């Protein structure tokens, strides 16, 4: 049984979190990396959404649907079931896996997005003692949204760096997976989630807790729709996402310099990441990496695990985070604090199943691989 780590509010004077940097390591002094880009993103379908009518009971959307978002009121026990109805009227039920995600500055109730199985024509959501809100998504058939910019990017250390070999990170840009950037703004053009940047203290791993179909980018767009629109955050809550084939996706918007995650070229201790929304109340200085898939009863694919190891290794090299050291994390925005390892699981922060029971039990192997690569094994 995993023991929940306790956290508490402390004064700002405690914000000097020691033990984050690798003193004496060349990675702290090396020149910063640069980003190269390629390809043209093109057009992607706008995500369509249809809200379930009040009153509960089975729902048959008027459109084809491939994901369903489920939300519960703030303070509600995160427990619900969703049943998918096929053409014969048969309903297959499954639990909804909620994650304790959220912006630090916005109250959020339990929320999740669920992939729709093949052949489903309707759905029903039930939650004991709560009135769930449900929205069906169609990520494939909407009008085209022009995604301006390159489709892919590579974050790479400079050639003069002692850590240059093996420290590059290739990713699909927001334009490359079809992010509808209009969702980040209100009707007056105001940014719904203005970027704030803080030195990186820790890195946290998640899973989406949903099946992934033949178009992983559609799954990313579904998560984006849940976070940005249904939860009214204005953007996706993860910094980076990884699909079963190992493809890396740029998440939370971090500026117009085409550098993902950071406010500029990261160069070791002091590298500043944009605040996202992946660990409720403890996001600033905490980089969130999410695997697409449900790892409650299964391991991620080997390709996904290998990509995760590469991503975590690069992030550790670029930020100075030691993957195995205990870190006295302090949120510089609200003074919440907790002790976790430099690379940790979502469940190490809060009471949640994320990143899935099966993967969580084997997570040490991933962290050990990262430590070996970055010279801390």
UniProtKB/TrEMBL annotation:
Record-annotated Peptidoglycan recognition protein family domain positions: 169-319
Keyword ATP-binding annotated: no
Superkingdom of source: Bacteria
Residues that span the membrane, as ranges: none
Chain segments carrying region Disordered: 34-60, 138-167
Biased composition (Low complexity): 157-167
Coiled-coil regions listed: none
Annotated signal sequence range: 1-23
Record key words, sorted: Signal
Family: Belongs to the N-acetylmuramoyl-L-alanine amidase 2 family.
Designated name of the protein: Peptidoglycan recognition family protein
Organism: Nocardiopsis sediminis
